[in-house]
Design a protein that fits this description.
The strands form 2 sheets. This protein has a 9-stranded mixed β-sheet with strand order 14-13-12-11-7-10-9-8-15, with helices on both faces. A 6-stranded parallel β-sheet has the order 3-2-1-4-5-6. The chain starts with a strand and ends in a 6-residue tail after the last helix. The longest helix has 19 residues, at about 220-235. Strand 1, helix 1 and strand 2 form a beta-alpha-beta unit. It has 16 helices and 15 strands. The chain is an alpha/beta fold. The structure holds 6-O-phosphono-beta-D-glucopyranose. 6-O-phosphono-beta-D-glucopyranose (BG6) binds next to helix 10.
Length: about 450
């Protein structure tokens, strides 16, 4: 069967930085597909290739990459697309069309309608299969997500719809489930009898001015919290699924999300120079800190503190699970440290278990020591990139790494107070942590795991 990926947003940031490199690696692995990139920026294929494809990359992708100058505002666009598709299909007997939308959510409705029109006009004497892939954020809020979904479902069955959150393609996410469900020693301490609190820290050093057109309408809540952060929380707190199939995992994830109330305890800010490159002041949040809890029997009462955002001093992505400390009291020693599991995603993928062991030449004095797993040292540097895993699953029609619509709806419900918030945002100088993050820690008497 011949597969053709029709890349909406084919000249955008995501396609350039993540998708084309992932396609190149999959072609090198032996997958067989062609890509038709749609965009307005370049007049023809040679201009497009010169600008988008790194010369050092193999020819594998270049040979498979076609370009169509596509203006979504042009009423004849769907006809132009269907004509090109017909010529790409040629004499093949069985063809799969994979429409990949890497677009602003505001363009989804138009894009889906155009796909329906183009699709209906593709006449060929072959068996046609189709799939549609939509990037996060899926919608702007709960209402628009539901509306987009209705439109999608008029043209595609749920099996044909892939809603992407690339975090599910990351090795650390998949490892969270294996670590929790393939280890009895972890399983038996992973609940509110043993865990005191959880921190999720996702600090990034880059800003968003390069993609302000996208980000100014999106902000940190839609960009990473509604999707990546909510998915991490489900993987950290879901019950064991009946099997590791996509359906069974989705059932457990939905239960977690339904047990989270809309977030009321939050603060947001934006970095001082946001918009300066374009000569305007943009009041879109680029950083947030918040607290929530998962109100299930096993996790109720564990505060989950999250802080995430842009233009920080250090790139740091980690999950810090702190355990209760009863030994201090029982051993009459206030200096005994808490045990912890620390999953670090950036700069390196590591998992540490922090325990107390005797410090030599001391009378019964302990010192926290870390038992470390390092992904690259143990398994080599050949862990596939998230997008490679995501696109591979799409090609294989395997939905195990994609959030279901129910999860997406629940996640929008949870973040809705943050979306509706009208309070002035803290303006933080670049490379500094907004003050509200430190205030939250002082107020709740915890220390960010810095
Ligand atoms: C993307 C967001 O989805 O995820 C970006 O749009 C963010 O703002 C990125 O930087 C983080 O992903 P990763 O794979 O670099 O951790």
């Amino acid at each position: 069967m011949k597969s053709i990926i029709i890349q909406f947003g084919g000249t955008g940031d995501l396609a350039l930085k993540k998708l084309y490199p992932a396609y190149a690696r999959l072609l090198e692995k032996g997958y067989d597909f062609n890509v038709l990139a749609l965009g307005r920026r370049y007049a023809d294929r040679s201009e497009f290739i010169k600008a988008m494809i790194n010369k050092d990359e193999s020819n594998t992708i270049t040979n498979r990459l076609d370009y169509l100058m596509y203006d979504m505002e042009d009423p004849s666009a769907p006809n132009i697309l269907s004509e090109r598709l017909c010529s790409l299909i040629g004499e093949h007997n069985e063809v799969e069309l994979i429409y990949y939308l890497a677009l602003q959510p505001s363009l989804y409705e138009d894009a889906i309608r155009q796909i329906q029109q183009a699709d209906a006009a593709v006449g060929c004497n072959c068996t046609l299969h189709k799939k549609i892939v939509v990037e996060k954020p899926f919608g702007f809020d709960l209402e628009s997500a539901q509306r987009y979904n209705q439109i999608l479902e008029t043209a595609f069955t749920d099996k044909e719809i892939f809603r992407v959150d690339h975090y599910l393609g990351k090795e650390f996410m998949q490892n969270l489930l294996v670590m929790r469900f393939h280890n009895d020693i972890i399983r038996s301490i992973w609940d509110n009898r043993s865990i005191e609190s959880i921190q999720i820290i996702f600090d990034e050093t880059h800003g968003v001015d390069q993609r302000l057109g996208f980000y100014e309408r999106i902000g940190v809540v839609r960009d990473t919290i509604q999707n990546h952060i909510m998915q991490i929380i489900t993987y950290l707190t879901m019950n064991e699924p009946a099997t590791l199939s996509s359906e069974d995992i989705a059932i457990e994830k939905v239960k977690v999300l339904r047990a989270i109330s809309p977030i009321e305890d939050f603060s947001m800010g934006r970095y001082e120079s946001l918009g300066a490159l374009s000569g305007k002041v943009v009041d879109t949040p680029t950083y947030a800190a918040f607290k929530l809890s998962v109100n299930t029997y096993y996790f109720a009462g564990i505060p989950i503190y999250v802080r995430t955002g842009k233009m920080q001093k250090e790139a740091k992505s980690l999950i810090y699970v702190k355990f209760k400390n009863t030994t201090k009291k029982v051993m009459h020693d206030a200096s005994i440290h808490e045990n912890a599991v620390i999953i670090t995603i950036h700069p390196e993928l590591t998992i540490d278990i922090s325990m107390n062991l005797k410090e030599p030449n001391t009378p019964w004095k302990s010192k926290p020591v870390r038992f470390r797993f390092n992904q690259a040292e143990t398994f080599g540097a050949n862990t596939p990139e998230a997008y490679e895993q995501i696109v591979e699953k799409i090609l294989q029609s395997d939905k195990s790494l994609f959030p279901s619509m129910r999860e997406i709806k629940e996640a929008w419900r949870i973040v809705s107070p943050m979306l509706d918030d009208k309070h002035p945002k803290e303006v933080y100088p670049i490379r500094t942590l907004p003050r509200f993050a430190a205030h939250m820690a002082d107020r709740d008497k915890f220390v960010w795991f810095d």
